[in-house]
Design brief:
The complex is a heterodimer of chains A (113) and B (114).
Chain A (H helix, E strand, L loop, with lengths): L2 E4 L4 E4 L4 E8 L6 E6 L5 E7 L7 E2 L2 E6 L4 E6 L8 E9 L2 E5 L5 E6 L1
Chain B lengths: L3 E4 L2 E4 L5 E7 L5 E7 L5 E9 L2 E4 L6 E3 L9 E3 L8 E8 L9 E2 L3 E5 L1
The chains are: A mainly beta (113), B mainly beta (114).
Chain lengths: 113, 114
């Protein structure tokens, strides 16, 4: 069946460091990709959406890239801030069966001042 | 502003008691979802509804029940049959179950056992 494997955390970085979080999936068809962010005690918020191989998607300094040859997604930010501390979830739709969104297990990110 | 409202934010359940979590959306979305999140874990699907008066079991439906009498509302009941109900419950909606659009989430309800 379709599955998604997300980079395990916690990830701890210093402020202004470069961030990359990886997410791999197995599915038939070509997926849409969503990255969500969850701040403490809150629900999930959509951070980025990418639906094409050449659509990197960007928001709040974050960028989503997709590498078809390895079926992996990457969430990147060039210079993280303390306010970026949160849990990040990747959620590819299951390719041709777009009805089922599969969530990764989440990556907890902590940024040191 | 459109969005999803979950209430209450915190809820306590006594042994043998059923409790109901509220989820209301004013986004005019057809599809609604309930997820359970345990500490340090991802999201697990409890139930979903594609349209009014229809709902389907997700991956962990045992001990839970739902109804979808109105498009805007999708309440979740945690029954006494759910022996480990302590968790963070998230409600979500989407334009349609078969769309490729992202889900919108509420702020969650944290359920604990007294």
């Amino acid at each position: 069946g379709n599955s998604v494997t997300q980079m395990e955390g916690p990830v701890t970085l210093s402020e202004e460091a470069f961030l990359t979080i990886n997410c791999t999936y197995t599915a038939t068809g070509y997926p849409s990709l969503f990255w969500y962010v969850q701040y403490p005690g809150e629900g999930l918020q959509l951070l980025l959406k990418a639906t094409k191989a050449d659509d990197k998607g960007s928001n709040k300094g974050f960028e989503a890239t997709y590498r078809k040859e390895t079926t992996s997604f990457h969430l990147e930010k060039g210079s993280v801030q303390v306010s970026d501390s949160a849990v990040y979830f990747c959620a590819p739709t299951a390719g041709s069966s777009a009805s089922k969104i599969i969530f990764g297990s989440g990556t907890r990110l902590s940024i040191r001042p | 502003d459109g969005g999803i409202t979950q209430s209450p934010k915190y809820l306590f359940r006594k042994e043998g008691q059923n409790v109901t979590l509220s989820c209301e959306q004013n986004l005019n979305h057809d599809a609604m979802y309930w997820y359970r999140q345990d500490p340090g874990q991802g999201l697990r699907l409890i139930y979903y509804s594609q349209i009014v008066n229809d709902f389907q079991k997700g991956d962990i439906a045992e001990g839970y029940s739902v109804s979808r009498e109105k498009k805007e509302s999708f309440p979740l009941t945690v029954t006494s049959a759910q022996k480990n109900p302590t968790a963070f419950y998230l409600c979500a909606s989407r334009t349609g179950h078969y769309s490729n659009q992202p889900q919108h989430f509420g702020d969650g309800t944290r359920l604990s056992i007294l």
